[in-house]
From TrEMBL:
Cofactor note: Binds 1 FAD per subunit.
Primary localisation category: cytoplasm
Entry protein name: Dihydrolipoyl dehydrogenase
Active-site positions on this chain: H451 (proton acceptor)
GO MF assignments: dihydrolipoyl dehydrogenase (NADH) activity; flavin adenine dinucleotide binding
An annotated GO BP: 2-oxoglutarate metabolic process
Residue span, Pyridine nucleotide-disulphide oxidoreductase dimerisation domain: 353-462
NCBIfam families referenced in this protein's UniProt entry, alphabetically: lipoamide_DH
Catalysis performed (reactions): N(6)-[(R)-dihydrolipoyl]-L-lysyl-[protein] + NAD(+) = N(6)-[(R)-lipoyl]-L-lysyl-[protein] + NADH + H(+)
Length: 478
């Protein structure tokens, strides 16, 4: 007789492992199935985010920024740093060490919480049974009262640029370059493409980013996106909008990319090419034909507002369901599912899921942008405060960008916070906290902020919404 659990989770990424731990805290017997192995061929928990996504990319972003600062940013502070060089191997080793520490931390949390970790590929069968194929190819079937599908996503591959071992790579391969490419191509000017392009540009690569869309950062507020485009171009990223890649050819350890844009058919040659055109749900051999769970043609599993699938007792979270493919969104869905199984009425506010791009400057936003409010016919007010007027930003020599706040014209309720600049993610989170409690711009403007801080830029933007900013000239009312 196979062992039965209150909950079996398939996938130990940010949705799965967080949901498993929360369910165990609530007194359930929980098992979590994961097949991913690290460079040493050992089981590695944490999913894409911890192993080959959010965490390792931030490690490289921080290392490369420190190198860039030493090369170009120290002089203004009176610091002479001559002959600064980068040891790419040491940088990659540091990244790997951080990943190992965090994935090992998840294993320790499982142990402390009483979650049973099962190594292998999980497949949902009919009747809430889960078949696990172990590393040795042996299969075992487990029974569950509830199942949480959390198998995440994988990078999308495109026919014009088939991946190779070392020249044409996806986002995972781009985290393991052993040297700085002289010329680097990046397909996709989204979050991943811009972050990885930034890393290698700072280290000395000549970087060209191809974007099929005519508009840059279409999901961001237009004003913020324009500022970002200007800033990245100044940093040396060559961003080609409306550029459709049609093919590629590898010769003498270089790749020639063929593309079309407004100027017609063109080609450029690179030492490395990163394909970062998005991700798709990982559902390969996940669902038995008779398991009853429905998905669409893009492999997105159908769920309701509470992540329940069409099968009672079976849930799906994270990158494999509707909404943004973000680790923090997946984690909160995992918690929501665990608590709802336990009988709680937990719900998630999908209107306030923050988005962040960890370039320098950082870009972050929460709530609605101007384009959305215009298309919805909502009357709104705008408050903008530039970091150029922030004493703290000046002291840090980090004055690029702005904080932008949007509020309802009638009620003054804050509808969106958009930031490009230092500590953008942290400032947007402050806005999200206020918005969760229905804050008005006036509320935020009346709060006492410590001085000097980057946070004051949020207060000043809130004041500017109603023409009360102190440290920047207010817009004249029409």
């Amino acid at each position: 007789m196979s062992k039965k659990f209150d909950l079996i989770v398939i996938g130990a990424g940010p949705g799965g492992y967080v949901g498993a731990i929360r369910a165990a805290q609530l007194g359930m017997s929980v098992a979590c199935v994961e097949k991913y192995t690290d460079k040493d061929d050992k089981l590695a928990l944490g999913g894409t985010c911890l192993n080959v996504g959010c965490i390792p990319s931030k490690a490289l972003l921080d290392s490369s920024w420190k190198f860039h600062e030493a090369q170009e940013g120290f002089k203004i502070h009176g610091i002479e740093a001559k002959g600064v060089s980068i040891d790419v191997k040491a940088m990659i080793e540091r990244k790997d060490k951080i990943v190992k520490q965090l994935t090992g931390g998840v294993a320790a949390l499982f142990k402390a919480s009483g979650v049973t970790s099962i190594e292998g590929h999980g497949k949902l069968l009919a009747g809430k049974k889960v078949e696990v194929t172990g590393p040795d190819g042996e299969t075992e079937v487990y029974e569950a009262e509830n199942v949480m599908l959390a198998s995440g996503s994988r990078p999308i591959e495109i026919p014009p640029t088939p991946l190779t071992d070392d020249i044409i790579v996806d986002s995972t391969g781009a985290l393991d370059f052993t040297s700085v490419p002289k010329k680097l191509g990046v397909i996709g000017a989204g979050v991943i493409g811009l972050e990885l392009g930034s890393v290698w540009r700072r280290l000395g690569s000549e970087v060209v980013v191809f974007e099929a869309q005519e508009q840059f950062l279409g999901l961001a507020d237009e004003q913020i996106a324009k500022e970002a485009h200007k800033t990245f171009t100044k940093q040396g990223l060559q961003i080609r909008l409306g550029a459709r890649v049609t093919g590629s050819e590898i010769k003498r350890k270089q790749v020639t990319v063929f593309f079309t844009d407004a100027e017609g058919e063109q080609q450029l040659t690179f030492d490395k090419l990163i394909v970062a055109v998005g991700r798709r749900p990982y559902t390969e051999n996940l669902l038995a034909a008779d398991c009853g769970v429905d998905k669409d043609e893009r492999d997105i599993i159908f769920v309701d507002d509470y992540c329940a699938t069409s099968v009672p007792g079976v849930y799906a979270v994270g990158d494999m369901v509707r909404g943004a493919m973000l680790a923090h969104k997946a984690s909160e869905e995992g918690v929501m599912v665990a608590e709802r199984i336990a009988g709680q009425k937990t719900a998630m506010n999908y209107d306030l899921v923050p988005s962040v791009i960890y370039t320098h400057p950082e870009i972050a936003w929460v709530g609605k942008n101007e384009q959305q409010l215009k298309s919805e016919g909502v009357e709104y007010k705008v408050g903008v405060f530039p970091f150029a007027a922030s004493g703290r930003a000046m002291a840090a020599n980090d004055t690029g960008g702005m904080v932008k706040m949007l509020a309802d014209a009638k009620t003054d309720r804050v509808l969106g916070v958009h930031v490009i600049g230092p500590a953008a993610a942290e400032l947007v989170q402050q806005g999200a906290i206020g918005m969760e409690f229905g804050t008005s711009a006036e509320d935020l403007g009346m709060m006492v902020y410590s001085h000097p801080t980057m946070s004051e830029a949020l207060k000043e933007a809130a004041l500017a919404v109603n023409g009360h900013a102190i440290h920047v000239a207010n817009r004249k009312k029409r």
